[in-house]
């Protein structure tokens, strides 16, 4: 009986460890541009994930993500300037490494609201510092069809 209890305990531990390992492999956080993926807020379909230097072409009503390197522990974050063709929806910080203060990626979600072409400008700054220029700016050519 004692041997059987030990065997059940070993099997239970193996199953538990396997489940924890599988939970850590739950999905890809691919920051490659273009292509379709699922994600965004509310389970909506995201047309693409774009990074610095890429042009964005989407259909009106589409949701898209811009992923940029960020380190919120420094107080800096990316924010979007007003744009006539897209509306800011949300932002999510994706941790790079499991170390306190480690940089990661900020993923900003937008919805294409009006057809046309414009430049979508993102500024990397500390929101609590007024009158201070951003330390970095990224511009994206945006075309909404």
Descriptive account of the structure:
Helix content is about 15%, strand content about 40%. The radius of gyration is 21 Å and the shape is globular. It is of the alpha+beta class. The longest helix is centred in the first third of the chain and has 23 residues, at about 1-25.
Q: Helicity, in percent? A: 10-25%
What does the largest sheet look like? 5 strands, mixed
Give the terminus-to-terminus CA distance.
Answer: 71 Å
Encode the helix/strand succession as letters.
Answer: HEEEEEEEEE
The largest sheet has its strands arranged as: 1-2-4-7-6
SS summary, helix count: 1
Strand count:
9
General shape: globular
Overall mean pLDDT stands at 77
Lay out the secondary structure.
Layout: H1 2-24, E1 37-38, E2 45-50, E3 56-58, E4 63-70, E5 77-80, E6 86-95, E7 104-112, E8 116-125, E9 136-144
Parallel strand pairs: 2-4, 3-9
Antiparallel strand pairs: 1-2, 4-7, 5-8, 6-7, 8-9
């Amino acid at each position: 009986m004692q041997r059987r209890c030990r065997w059940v305990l070993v099997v239970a531990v193996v199953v538990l460890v396997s489940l924890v390992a599988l939970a850590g492999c739950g999905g890809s956080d691919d920051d490659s541009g273009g292509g379709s993926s699922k994600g965004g807020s509310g389970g909506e379909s995201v047309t693409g994930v774009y990074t610095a230097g890429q042009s964005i072409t989407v259909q009106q009503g589409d949701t898209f993500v811009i992923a940029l390197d960020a380190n919120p522990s420094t107080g800096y974050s990316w924010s979007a300037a007003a744009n006539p063709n897209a509306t800011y929806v949300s932002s999510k910080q994706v941790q790079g490494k499991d170390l306190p203060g480690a940089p990661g990626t900020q993923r900003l979600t937008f919805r294409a609201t009006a057809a046309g072409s414009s430049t979508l400008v993102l500024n990397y700054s500390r929101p609590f510092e007024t009158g201070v220029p951003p330390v970095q700016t990224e511009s994206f050519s945006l075309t909404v069809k």
